[in-house]
Design goal:
The complex is a heterodimer of chains A (291) and B (563).
Chain A lengths: L1 H31 L6 H18 L4 H24 L7 H23 L15 E3 L2 E3 L1 H23 L1 H11 L1 H6 L4 H23 L8 H17 L4 H21 L8 H12 L14
Antiparallel strand pairs in A: 1-2
Chain B lengths: L3 H16 L5 H26 L7 H17 L5 H23 L4 H21 L1 H4 L17 H22 L3 H11 L1 H6 L4 H27 L9 H14 L4 H17 L7 H15 L3 H7 L24 E12 L2 E12 L3 E5 L6 H8 L7 E6 L2 E2 L5 H6 L2 E3 L12 H8 L5 H14 L15 H14 L4 E5 L7 H17 L2 E5 L3 H7 L2 E6 L2 E6 L1 H6 L1 H8 L9
Parallel strand pairs in B: 3-8, 3-9, 6-7, 7-8
Antiparallel strand pairs in B: 1-2, 1-4, 4-5, 9-10
The chains are: A mainly alpha (291), B alpha/beta (563).
């Protein structure tokens, strides 16, 4: 029993990271109807930002975080301008392929610059963690869960309670109508990319201490996040979070009870099961194509 | 079909190049790699180029084919060609399973599922040591007897490549290839003109997987040693880049792209470790600046020739019969809490022109979408010529004699006017389909624009092509969604005449229209909807004086009870 609880805790911790990346991915999908295949690389860049600023430049941890997030915001803007914006009037296919190209460019650009050797980072906190009668709550995982929780609440309040949040929602629902109402649609999409890149960066910063920082990190997280968003219900925000947590928990249990080498496969097995049995996901509604 | 003599000549050239040309070992290896990759890339031509579905697992299918040959020949003791067949069919089988589970859903699902499949395959190849020999790979893969010498084996690879490229190129103008392109250009429209879109997508994906497997099987024989890292996601990306660079919509483009990217790394050695990053950049730049790739760019400069038969008179072969052709009772379509269509009754008599009118948002188009099978009804019954068809798939309804057009025109924009109509005529089969398509295009007065690309036609002509496409399917009942929208006065008059001529053909028309002059001019009877319910039904004279109708349109006193 205590083993199961321990695994559950670890699974939720890693699942929170998947959820953050899935969230960024869903936000871009809702704003642009484009599936951003480079979303995982955002997390990879965030982790490398930390390695560069703290290990490379020797800056303090908090400053490293600030600089990394600022750089991610800038990167999100550049990504929009270079990868999405020139193709915004074209169909779904060219844009998706363009983001796949960006993903390859980022992975291999970083690989060529920093090499394949994984780096390690110290944890976010030095606190010892908590012990509940045999259940050990590692401080790093606690920090991940707490930060994810805060972010999700802040994001909810932002979308539901602020005018800017409402404008973003309006943009994602009907761009034409939004622009008729005077909402600067291009600006809203820019903001979405910036925010998604920052979210990805945070996920990378959070996960860096518990996984090795390597170029493979991006693809590894992205695939789980994609699976999470489908399992949750494509385009659904609470679904992305629930899906991310579900995958984190299931792969942790699978790795312990079934087999470690196939750890990365459980998410996909779950994904296939959903596609066959419940393609609309946990929370999704069956949507018809608009004729 | 192109000249068969040309085919023989090309095949001979492949053999000669392989056997006779003075190539050193290194160049032979390079050419083998290019040829086997190109076969797999041709699979992407079918699935991505023709059908518009993103597959990111081509290297996985390539790997299945390669392991099929490697393990089939070294482990099971099969002959090379038996092992090649095994690997190829295995890849195709996985393609069917993967496509079958995914292709009912939207476009991005396939991309994600293929990535997942790719990752799982890499895990299995690496970890299932008992079956695959694990990370060490499989060595000493035999080549077929008699083709062991490298130049001979190269000749085999080139020959298979040539045959594949020829077949894939020919497919583009065959009915199946046209159906694939229809799905790519406009899946909804493809379904209502009778294309079973799900089936076409699965076939495309399975063919693509087969070609991946075939290329991979030959690759295993070429290099005689394979290991899991040769079939990773990165390699799928390389194959995708090859297809895109050359031009994914034509077989020639795929071969050009593959040859360039196999040879380029040799020429671009100075890029060293950055060359994959450059691939990524190239993908973005191609999408932005040259979306049709090198060959697409070159081919776009040539005019398209169209082999359209001499048009004869259009004959619609379905007898109109007597009584009600379409009988709708209590039809309902709810979206969550919104009752877009809420218990509508509608009776369309055989041979009449029936208009469906109502204010914006009254549920007209939703009704049409339910009738043509795009939406599943929440409730109610739909009988077409006496048969219950509520909830049937669009392509089955098309086969049952239902044609439609869309308010916002939905043509297959990259195909010619004639090809658009030809896709609508496929039920007739073979030469008859071409004759029927020519007659339908002539009927709307556009026989002389047969070779024009649909997207390049003026708006009024696009409407006519869409009507011709629906007519080519030999409909008993034709649903027209605001055919007069956006037409100028002359075009509207021409449309009025066309509708009269359609009536002369014996086709029954159900027409949504806002232009009341046109409705009064052509309609025998009118049904009026408001807020998803029928509020009036009868001849134009009765209906247009009906107080509720007047209220719904002008918002007078009586209208309040509906607001």
């Amino acid at each position: 029993m205590s083993i199961a609880l321990q695994l559950l805790f670890t699974g939720i911790g890693i699942g929170a990271v998947y959820a953050l990346v899935a969230l960024g991915f869903v936000l871009i999908y809702r704003a642009t109807n484009v599936v951003n295949f480079a979303q995982g690389q955002f997390a990879m860049l965030g982790a490398f930002g930390m390695v560069i600023t703290t290990e490379g430049l020797g800056l303090p941890y908090w400053l490293g975080i600030l600089l990394t997030l600022a750089a991610m915001a800038l990167f999100g803007a550049l990504f929009n301008l270079g990868v999405y914006y020139p193709l915004r009037h074209r169909s779904f296919l060219p844009v998706v392929i363009s983001t796949i190209g960006a993903s390859i460019l980022l992975t291999n650009g970083v690989l060529a610059t920093y090499g394949p050797e994984p780096a390690t980072l110290p944890g976010l906190t030095d606190l010892p963690g908590l012990n509940f009668g045999g259940l050990f709550l590692d401080s790093q995982y606690l920090a991940i869960i707490a930060i994810t929780l805060v972010l999700v609440v802040l994001q909810y309040l932002f979308f539901e309670r602020t005018l800017l949040g409402k404008k973003l929602q309006a943009t994602s629902q009907d761009k034409e109508m939004a622009s008729l109402l005077g909402i600067p649609v291009a600006g809203m999409i820019m903001l979405t990319f910036v925010y998604s890149a920052v979210l990805g960066g945070i996920a990378g910063i959070l996960v860096a201490p518990i996984l090795f920082v390597s170029v493979g990190l991006g693809a590894q997280i992205a695939l789980k996040a994609f699976a999470a968003s489908i399992i949750g219900g494509f385009g659904d925000i609470p679904g992305a979070i629930a899906g991310g947590l579900a995958i984190g928990v299931i792969e942790t249990f699978g790795a312990f009870y079934i087999s470690v080498p196939y750890k990365d496969a459980y998410a996909f097995v779950l994904l296939f099961a959903f596609l066959l049995l419940r393609p609309q996901g946990l929370f999704g509604e069956k949507v018809s194509q608009k004729a | 079909m192109k000249n068969p003599a040309l085919a023989l000549l090309g095949a001979a050239a492949c053999v000669v190049l392989g056997l006779v040309a003075p190539l050193d070992d290194y160049l032979i290896k390079l050419l083998m790699q290019a040829a086997t990759y190109a076969i797999a890339v041709l699979g992407l031509t079918i699935v991505l180029g023709y059908t518009g579905q993103i597959s990111l697992a081509q290297a996985a299918f390539f790997g299945i084919g390669a392991y099929g040959v490697a393990l089939g020949s070294t482990g099971l003791g099969l002959s090379f060609f038996a092992a090649l067949a095994l690997g190829t069919l295995l890849a195709g089988l996985f393609g069917v399973l993967l496509g079958g589970s995914t292709l009912k859903l939207g476009g991005h699902y396939l991309a994600m599922v293929t990535i997942s499949f790719q990752e799982i395959l890499t895990l299995v190849l690496t970890n299932w040591v008992g079956l695959t020999h694990g990370p060490d790979g499989v060595a000493n893969i035999p080549r077929p007897t008699g083709l062991v010498a490298a130049p001979r084996y190269l000749a085999l690879c080139l020959l298979v490549l040539f045959a594949t490229a020829w077949a894939v190129g020919a497919l583009k103008r065959r009915p199946l290839g046209l159906a694939m392109q229809a799905v790519r250009d406009n899946e909804l429209a493809a379904s209502v003109v009778g294309v079973n879109t799900y089936r076409v997508k699965i076939i495309a994906f399975a063919l693509s997987a087969l070609l991946g497997g075939l290329g991979g099987g030959l690759f295993a024989g070429a290099f005689r040693y394979i290991s899991p890292d040769q079939f990773s996601f990165d390699d799928s990306v390389v194959l995708l880049t090859m297809a895109l660079l050359g031009g994914v919509e034509a077989a020639t483009g795929s071969v050009i792209g593959t040859a360039l990217l196999v040879l380029l790394p040799e020429w671009l050695r100075f890029l060293r470790q950055f060359y994959l990053a450059v691939y990524g950049l190239a993908v973005i730049l191609i999408m932005v600046f040259m979306p049709a790739g090198i060959w697409g760019f070159l081919a776009g400069l040539r005019p398209r020739r169209v082999a359209m038969p001499q048009p004869g008179g259009l004959v619609l072969g379905r007898a109109a019969g007597e009584g009600a052709l379409l009988e709708v009772v209590g039809l309902a379509k709810h979206f969550g809490g919104l009752r877009a269509v809420d218990g509508v009754d509608l009776r369309v008599l055989a041979g009449e022109v029936h208009a469906l009118i109502g204010p914006n948002g009254s549920g007209k188009t939703t009704t049409l979408n339910v009738l043509s099978g795009l939406y599943r009804p929440t409730g109610g019954s739909v009988r077409l010529a006496g048969r219950e068809v509520a909830g049937h798939a669009p392509h089955l309804l098309a086969a049952a004699g239902l044609g439609r057009t869309f308010q916002n025109i939905r043509l297959f924009h990259s195909l010619t006017a004639f090809e658009n109509v030809l896709i609508g005529a496929q039920a007739a089969g073979g030469a008859q389909a071409a004759e029927r398509a020519a007659a339908a295009l002539d009927f709307v007065g556009l026989a002389d624009r047969a070779g024009a690309i649909a997207a390049s036609l003026p708006y009024g002509h696009q409407r006519m092509v869409e009507i011709a496409r629906a007519l080519a399917g030999n409909p008993a009942l034709l649903l027209l969604d605001e055919p007069a929208a956006g037409l100028n006065l002359t075009e509207k008059q021409a449309l009025g005449q066309l509708l009269d001529r359609l009536r002369g053909l014996g086709v029954t028309l159900l027409l949504i229209e806002h232009d009341m002059d046109l409705v009064e001019q052509v309609a025998d009877r009118i049904t009026v909807l408001n807020f998803g319910k029928r509020i009036a039904d009868g001849t134009p004279a009765e209906v247009l004086r009906h107080p509720e109708v007047v209220a719904a349109y002008l918002g007078e006193e009586a209208g309040h009870e509906f607001a």
